[in-house]
Specification:
Immunoglobulin-like
């Protein structure tokens, strides 16, 4: 009889102690701390994740955090440039006291793939390589969207006002043979010729603006030293040789002027008449 009572008492105490332990480990506690380096420097914006759960926190700019966790939780702490570390919540006897824990992370280095750096010899070499550069879109979704939007792509707007638009912009006999009356009218009508001429001027208005802004006698004279008839002669020679697009910069126009001037001088030395 005594043995039975003793066994029952032992089982009772074991059950109570295990229940008390489970209650203590499952209790919610508030933990605060600071993530620092080995020299006690704060690590800003370190990431804290509760192991096995989808919750956590990002530290502030001083590496300080405040979390409500269970007594049995473990924190996974990571920061750029530091080794990821697991930190187990220490057992807290008195949850009423303010608790603040400094946690130290160890620095680490990241190995990256080898990178080869090549230098272009001259500006012309770089420009040639840049123009031949092919950019591939690695995002399949962009390619798919482009295909889906293709039927809805419209032509560029016609900048020529309706009153200056010719019946046929570029008359060609073979191409417009089926509409011979319209072709003949376009070729013979003075009004249609005038419209085509005005439309061409409107489309080339940007080119005229660039010429008048960057290809003046003052600019050419400043870069060549020419004056008077010699300046006029060179500008007549250089003007048709300039390659100007909407994206052409002032620097590239000046570069062409200087190069054409060198060519112009070489032709003069050889007693050749510069071809216009």
């Amino acid at each position: 009889m005594l043995r039975i009572l003793l066994i029952l008492l032992i089982l009772f105490f074991v059950y109570n102690s295990s229940e008390a332990t489970s209650i203590e480990t499952d209790s919610i506690v508030r933990v605060s701390g600071q993530i620092v380096t080995q020299s006690s420097t704060p690590i800003p914006l370190a990431h804290l994740i509760i192991k096995g759960k989808q919750s956590g926190q990002v530290c502030d700019s001083l590496g300080i955090f405040h979390l409500q966790v269970k007594q049995s939780d473990t924190l996974i702490i990571s920061a750029l440039g530091f080794k990821t570390q697991e930190w187990t919540i220490p057992f807290i006897f008195d949850t009423t006291l303010p608790l603040f824990y400094p946690i130290t992370l160890e620095k680490t280095a990241y190995l990256i793939n080898e990178v080869n750096v090549f230098a272009f010899g001259t500006w012309d070499d770089f420009k040639t390589a840049f123009l031949k550069l092919e950019i591939k879109d690695n995002y399949v979704i962009n390619t798919q969207i482009t295909k889906e939007l293709a039927p809805f792509q419209t032509k560029k707007p016609n900048i020529v006002p309706p009153q200056y638009r010719a019946l046929i912009e570029k008359p060609h006999f073979i191409k417009h043979f089926k509409i011979l009356p319209a072709y003949l009218y376009t070729k013979l009508s003075k009004n249609e010729k005038r419209k085509r001429k005005v439309a061409k001027m409107i489309r080339n208005e940007w080119r005229i603006r660039k010429y008048t802004k960057y290809y003046t006698s003052d600019i050419v004279s400043a870069h060549t030293g020419l004056k008077g008839e010699a300046l006029e002669d060179f500008m007549t020679y250089c003007g048709p040789k300039l390659e100007i697009t909407k994206m052409t910069s002032r620097y590239y126009i000046l570069e062409q002027i200087v190069n054409n001037y060198r060519e112009y001088l070489n032709l003069k030395k050889d007693n050749q008449t510069p071809k216009l």
